[in-house]
Specification:
Structural class: mainly alpha
Number of helices: 6
Shape: elongated
Number of strands: 0
Radius of gyration: 25 Å
Length: 174
């Protein structure tokens, strides 16, 4: 615990000196702080994980999965409606809409898969913490966070596709 508090004090001093140096138009950093930071990084290798840290991901991932599932169901219902409309009219624009919606469904499927993978890795992390394999738990938890970030990036891509489709639809009305 002493190392962590020392780290926060040291980083705040470095930040303060950096701000003062910026005000004086001098960007040279004090070498003694750089040496202390290097020393600190070599001693503090990993954050101490407790069972509560990966458990914090459970409600976040669960709510994310609910939102992803709602998107999936809404787009699936829209595709069914457009498919029926296409069978009646054989319209090219309806066919293109269905194609774009099916691409969004694929992205949502990957969003769900990476969120589930993140959830699974968080559970494995908790098991590793319980079994006192802290180094491996840190690595697995890092992968869990990466999977969650991947899921969120895919969500951003899907939202952008949705917004683009709506703007095309609204452009036709003008």
């Amino acid at each position: 615990m002493l190392k962590k508090s020392y780290c926060f004090v040291l980083l705040s001093l470095v930040f303060k000196d950096t701000l003062i140096a910026k005000r004086n138009n001098s960007y040279r950093m004090n070498m003694k702080y750089l040496k202390k930071i290097k020393q600190l990084i070599s001693t503090v290798k990993y954050m101490e994980l407790t069972l509560s840290i990966p458990a914090l991901l459970f409600p976040a991932i669960s709510l994310t999965m609910l939102a992803y599932n709602a998107r999936y169901l809404a787009i699936a219902a829209l595709i069914r409606q457009l498919h029926q409309k296409y069978q009646e009219t054989a319209s090219e624009s309806v066919r293109l809409q269905v194609k774009k919606l099916s691409r969004r469904l694929t992205i949502i499927k990957h969003m769900q898969a990476t969120a589930i993978f993140s959830f699974l890795l968080a559970v494995i992390t908790m098991a590793l913490i319980y079994l006192e394999h802290s180094t491996l738990a840190n690595v697995v938890f890092g992968f869990s966070l990466m999977a969650l970030m991947t899921s969120l990036v895919l969500s951003l891509i899907e939202v952008q596709l949705s917004t683009k489709a709506l703007s095309i639809q609204l452009k036709d009305m003008e």
